[in-house]
Amino acid sequence: MDVFLLQLLNGLDKGAAYALIAFGLTLVFGTLGVVNFAHGALFMLGAFCAVTLQKILTISKKVKDESITFFDAYKETPYLEIWWGDTGAAIIDWVIPISIFLAIPIMLLIGLSMERGLIRHFYKRPHAEQILVTFGLAIVLQELIRAFFGANPIPVSAPEILSGSADIGYILGMGADYLTYPWWRIIYVLFSGAIILSVFAFLQFTTFGMVVRAGMHDRETVGLLGINVQRRFTIVFGMAAVVAGLAGAMYVPILPPDYHMGMDFLVLSFVVVVVGGMGSLGGAVAAGFLLGILQSFSSLNEIKNIIPGIDQIIIYLVAVVIILVRPRGLMGRKGVMED
Amino acid sequence: MENNSTENNTVLNISNVNVTFGGLHALSEINLQIEEGKTHAIIGPNGAGKSTLLNVCIGKLVPDTGTVTLDGEIMTGKLPHEINHAGMVRVFQTPEIFPEMSILRNMMIPAFAKRDGMFKFNAFTSMADEKEIEAEAIHVLQDFGLVDQMHHHAGSMSRGDKRRLELGMGLIQHPRILLLDEPTAGMARHDTNRTIELLQSIKERGTTKVIIEHDMHVVFSLADRISVLAQGRIIAAGTPDEIRANPKVQEAYLGGAEI
Amino acid sequence: MNKQFFQSDLGTMLLFSVAILTMPVWLDPVGANYPDLLQKFAIFGIFAIGFNILFGLTGYLSFGHAVFLGVGSYTAVWSFKLLSMNVLPAIMFSMIIAGIFAIGIGYLCLRRSGIYFSILTLAFAQMSYNMAYSVLTPITNGETGLQLSSQDPRIVDNAFSDAVVEGLPSTNLFGMEMSGYPGFYFCAVLLIIAFFFSLRIFRSPFGMKLQAIKSNQTRMRYTGFNTRPYLLTAFVISGIYAGLAGSLLAVTDPLAGAERMQWTASGEVVLMTILGGMGTLVGPLLGVGIIKYFENIFSSLNSNRLHEIFSWLPDGLEDFVVTVVSHFVGEGWQLTLGLLFMLVVIFLPGGVMEGIRRTSTVIKNYNAKRSQNKEAVTAAASKESDDGK
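Output (structure tokens, whole complex):
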């Protein structure tokens, strides 16, 4: 039972990341009709927002280390600590949550300029060309990041207080230390749930959202009603970028970001989108969690002993079966890119 | 007696076909016999199920019940290319051509289909050596007055020319039966007359045809028999004169207007 | 020797063979005349030509063609290990095994088209890659990659000679060592053969039918073609080409690693084909040439070399230029590639070949105009002189 629960929990945080990336991907596809291979790069950029903020906050000065008295020793101390003491240290400690506030405007800006500058001109071009140009963009973005941050993963840790583990077993009455799970992962799952719910609510309960949903359903008709769908779609793209960016920023303590993490996640999230059904928001979320959990369970030794290597390929295997058997995915609408 | 003799030269036999979309009856209890060498028109208001009927014939749609047989061979459930090789060819309403290729090549493709069958790996003969197919295609293009522009891209043709190319692509396969989906829709009067002439000349060759058409002028100048379709049912069938005189048809479709 | 001759199969092949075989001569001035790079040109040329038969003719964008490259390499190395260091059996087995893989993967993937096809191929590529790294380690030797070893059985070789060879043997073609220039010429000959088959396919009814499938597949079905076997044939042919290229990679350097199957490797051949011009005969080769050449030149540039190049600039400016440029060369070469690729897709979807076509049209129009003007001028002049009489 506890093994089962642990695998379920392990699957949840990965699933949450898949769901968030796939969510934006499918939102863009459903509204703009664009297959965006650069979406993984947005996830990566979000993660590097957090890294950048950390770099900025920890700009340091050499200060004489008073604790060593035998000789003159110096240590690097961030200006923030010099100026504000403990408050400064706390800010540095909480860099990841704070980076959300940096990531939102930056990702919005990136998303809007990407749509205006590039994606917009590819609405009418074939899907193959959309894939190719965004693939090129993804390469450019990841190489830029490598140029500035190098090729190695850069670890940034979660706030001290949240870096421990929650004793889930104790909470559930199974006794202490029976089943523990890192706090940050719990926060990540809750966070992604909150984002997904708020985007859903936004699409469901605002006029803007209503127009977007109508546009997803039948773009031409909405255009005929004299509504400027175009501008709204630009904003939708910005939203998708923000969601991907936040997913990336918050994922930093779980996986130290490197320049090619976007590509790694892109392939998986495409699979998630397809499994969920192209253009289906609910499908993307469901498939994201489903595949995350499946992947987690397939890495159990009991299962690996029966089918060796299954944990390495399970997601792709599921994708192949779904595309072949049910091309519209779990929740896709009939006729959307079916063929 | 008479029944027997008609059955003998029935080419296409549609019997008892039902199609429903959701709860909607698109076609109910359709029975239709097309005789050899005849031109059979199917008329009816929009949404009567004419295009659905053609889709059933060429295998785009599988009916809920009923069968379509061509020369006694069952077509329902076969794949589009198999039906094509059985001899049933459809000319599409919106021209379905190969826009990036030259008009000549467009015409050669169906000729290749006729010669090579459903699949042939002829990767080592050169297109330049396919003189027979080319001559055949040019011959048809001449009949249709398209030979002057045959090296142009098909995508750049006028709509009327595309329709004629489409018709030629159907004919070059020498089908047993040709299904025409509104061959003159959206054409100017001049083009319409030209198309009627073309179709009449095919008639002389003895090709069996099914025509779906709105334009009564076209229908009455071509058809040997007419079936009237309304709300998925055949409400009347007969020779053009019989249909003209049928009060039921006048009411249901022609709105009582004089033809 | 007129234009028609060059457009005929024989003329094209003659021209092409001469161009390929003399590469060491005409690539010398641009600093690309060393065997390693020349071999890469030829090998990736074969890969791209094959990819173009699928993508260029049918429009099916595969993101998993590197699988066949990897399979070809592994098969070739196994052939070296088990049978013989002779390259011919290695190449043959590679093509056969890659072909079998292509039949299996193609059969499944071609049930869908468009983006679903792309994702299916991608999924197969990732599965193969992950498995090569993990469960298939006995066959692929996992992260280390498959290498030759002195304990290899090499049944055929050992049956015919008792000579004990010191160290690792090298690949050969009946005794001729397949490294350096001989290696290049061997690859070049295979490239020429590969190009010949591709030429025949492009100019055949089969090739035309593939193009028609790209143009309007539904219509092809109603015209009486069973499109699936056509697509599968194209897929398998391009898979065999990739297997051949993979085996040649192993021939010139006998080791095989899983990273050869990664989807970025598949992405590379897409880049090459698009950059040169998909659907054209020589476009993919141009793409290979450009990418491999600049990869070599650019990635070898470091800041010292840059300072030498820009030493004619004033000091401050020199440093600035070097700092900017250094982001685009060396390690940053990929950045240049990405930018170049984007520019091509945006402004020149037909690739370099379309660029050449457009330029030649412009020149033709210009010349036509000029000769017209000339005619007008001479006409006017002759009229004047007539008047003068």
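Chain C has a mean pLDDT of 87.
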